[in-house]
Design goal:
Radius of gyration: 19 Å
Order of helices and strands: HEHHEEEEHEEHEEHEEEHEEHEEHH
Helix content: 25-40%
Number of helices: 10
Structural class: alpha/beta
Strand content: 15-25%
Largest sheet: 9 strands, mixed
Length: 318
């Protein structure tokens, strides 16, 4: 992966250090990869990674990044800083703890990172939100018990938008729907990873849903590149957008696209479809598309996204 050349130069010549929270997750690892490629020999001193524990993170090209525990943020000296904030307990953790514990832990993370952002030096931030902030009727979620992940993401949007307004900072808030590309994780949860891994193993693609499941994918490098581009403009204020790809795709069609991209002949197994229900998790991608166009970034089409995701999975899990 690589950022557009002009953006890489701009970041390399900028005054920022780059603080990445949740560095060991999908977006965090992709961010580290892009920044290390862009900054070259400067990266080890200008990119700081934080996560739940101290550990070494291995980039696909062989680079190694030392992740510090999140608590170490409080020890950082003041310096011009771009904050790239992904630290969050995700939806799969809800089932493993009480609602009260899940909410308390996430709010504690958010409050801690906000305190860091309110210290001297931080004047630009990317805070990753989610399409889960929307309720089923398309309005913003208001039910913490029914959708704690979405409600907490919405709280984060409000929290950091207030920070940006009071600080006079630049804030990018993408509402992420469906992502593809290197460092994809949760291989048994994400449909794209599951379908690709089945094809790579020569096993049937098993789709359990007996109803339509509609998604629209954007590449992780496109999302991060346009977000970093917008932050590098130095224009104060909040930019908020939904992510989406060039088209919507039903999961059965996605399986066929995976077969085409990988040249696979594995069968697709699925129960008969019940046309009465549609699970559509797709954002309004118009603002995102406009930003990509302004940045001069041509987004990866679905076939290329699948191929890049498959190459990454094959490299990391041969």
């Amino acid at each position: 992966m690589a950022l557009p050349a002009a953006l890489a130069v701009r970041l390399r010549e900028s005054h920022w250090r780059f603080v990445v929270t949740g560095a060991g997750g999908w977006a965090g690892m992709a961010t580290l990869d892009l920044l290390y490629a862009a900054l070259g020999g400067q990266a080890s001193r200008r990119v700081l990674a934080f996560g739940s524990t101290a550990r070494e993170l291995l980039l696909r090209g062989g680079g190694r990044v030392q992740q510090q525990p999140l608590a170490a943020l409080a020890e950082l000296a003041s310096a011009p800083t771009m904050l790239l904030h992904y630290a969050f307990l995700t939806r799969d953790r809800v089932a493993g703890m009480s609602l009260q514990e899940y909410v308390a832990q996430n709010r504690a993370i958010s409050e801690f990172v906000e305190r860091f952002a309110r210290g001297p030096g931080v004047d630009a931030a990317l805070v990753l939100s989610s399409g889960a902030v929307y309720a089923r009727d398309g309005s913003l979620e208001r039910d913490l018990q029914a959708n704690p992940y979405g409600m907490l993401k919405l709280e984060d949007e409000t929290r950091f938008a207030r920070w940006a307004a009071e600080r006079g900072a630049t804030l990018v808030l993408p509402r992420l729907f469906n992502l593809s590309g290197p460092y994809i994780n949760k291989l048994d949860t994400y449909a794209l990873a599951t379908l690709i891994r089945a094809a790579q193993a020569g096993e049937p693609m098993r789709i359990r849903a007996a109803h339509a499941v509609v998604r629209s994918y954007t590449a992780v490098e496109d999302l991060l590149a346009v977000s970093l581009w917008r932050l590098a403009q130095g224009v104060r204020g909040v930019v908020r957008f939904d992510t989406a790809g060039e088209r919507e795709v039903e999961i059965g069609e996605l399986a066929l696209e995976v077969k085409l991209a990988l040249g696979s002949a594995v069968p697709i197994e699925r129960p008969p479809l019940d046309g009465a229900q549609v699970d559509r998790y797709v954002g309004d991608g118009s603002a995102y598309a406009e930003l990509l166009d302004q940045a001069g970034i041509v987004p990866l089409l679905l076939q290329r996204q699948i191929a890049r995701t498959a190459d990454d999975l094959n490299q990391r899990f041969p």
